[in-house]
Amino acid sequence: MEEQGCAPDIMTWTILIKGHCAAHEIEKALLCFAKMMEKGFDADADLLDVLINGFLSRSRTIGAYTLLLELVQKARLRPWQSTYKNLIQKLLGERKLEEAMELLRLMKKHNYPPFPEPFVQYISKLGSVEDAWEFLMALSVKEYPTVSAYQHVLKSFFDEGRHSEAKDLLFKCPHHIRKHPAICSLFGSAI
């Protein structure tokens, strides 16, 4: 193409990379991506989404995670919210909570709204009280998350039959959360 005087633009590169990803040729897609960067083109959120989905289609979730982190840090790229959500769900599906939490923090830095649903489901089934606490702190905008965030996590522990974990988490909560009527109603007179 270039030999015939047609210089590819970012859209051409994206289509080429997307084609390699669709054909499950991730290595070729990465080579095209590197060549594109050498030619002075900057990656955008669309191209990052294509690459991430290419990795995920080959069950290379950690590779997708590493690529996203690298491009956010080095290329100052701002991924789409849907890219974050998709990758978080895949990471949690592979029990990679720490990596998913890191993406949640990055989402927050990029001013996206929190994405608590898959975390609450994961933590209520497989997580520890410390995992729940770390998650709640990652959600907080100022000092503490909203009462409804605490309520959602505590209720999910109850729904999974993990009453002792719910109580342990409750005792880590600040006083104003422990004494809130919505929280008290979850525990009845047990607190």
Description:
By secondary structure, this protein is mainly alpha-helical. It folds into two domains: 1-111, Tetratricopeptide repeat domain (Serine Threonine Protein Phosphatase 5, Tetratricopeptide repeat); 116-191, no CATH class. Helices cover 70% and strands 0% of the residues. The chain has twelve helices and no strands. Helix 8 (129-139) packs across helix 10 (163-172) and helix 9 (147-159) runs antiparallel to helix 10. It is elongated and about 75 Å long.
Query: Overall 3D geometry?
Result: elongated
The CATH architecture classification of the largest domain is Alpha Horseshoe
- Number of E-type strands: 0
What share of the residues lie within helices?
Answer: over 70%
Protein name: Pentatricopeptide repeat-containing protein, mitochondrial
PPR repeats: 9-43, 80-114
Pfam family, one: PPR_2
Keywords: Repeat
